[in-house]
Amino acid sequence: MPRVRPLVARTPASLAFPGRVIPEPHPDLYALDAGPDIWTFPCECGANGCRQRVSMTITEYSLLRESGDPVLAPGHDLTPGERIRRWSRSLAADARALQAQARHQVRRAARAGGLQRVK
């Protein structure tokens, strides 16, 4: 029977999201004979009082994270508030990227002698 490990990370990410379970590497994960370890993750539906746990391999979890999809228990959907929070985080990240691109272009133009330096 596969092992199930709920882990709470002691990282800056765990401080930014208190109460969230964030996986941390476990030595057995890399053992050749460990087999398919199954970890548990909290449902991210955003519903008040939701304490459901979702069991999956770390590979499945990584694929969810890469695609931007939330970890949801069967039958759960994101609450409207959680949908808006995710959307706003996405917009904020896009805005930061655009600001960085604009600063870069201004610096390039200033080096080429076309513009006065703008802060």
List the helices and strands and how they pair.
Elements: E1 4-5, H1 12-16, E2 38-42, E3 53-56, H2 58-67, H3 80-111
Parallel strand pairs: 1-2
Antiparallel strand pairs: 2-3
Descriptive report:
It is a single chain. With 119 residues, this protein is mainly alpha-helical. It has two domains: 1-77, no CATH class; 79-119, no CATH class. Helix content is 39%, strand content 9%. It is built from three helices and three strands. It has helices at residues 12-16, 58-67, 80-111; strands spanning 4-5, 38-42, 53-56. The radius of gyration is 20 Å and the shape is elongated.
Key attributes of the depicted protein:
3-stranded mixed sheet; mainly alpha
Q: In one word, what is the shape?
A: elongated
Helix residue percentage? 25-40%
Number of domains: 2
Number of strands: 3
**Termini separation:** 60 Å
* Strand residue percentage: 5-15%
Mean pLDDT: 75
Strand order of the largest sheet: 1-2-3
Following the backbone from N to C, one meets helices and strands in this order, namely: EHEEHH
Q: What would a concise description of this structure say?
A:
The chain has 119 residues and is mostly helical.
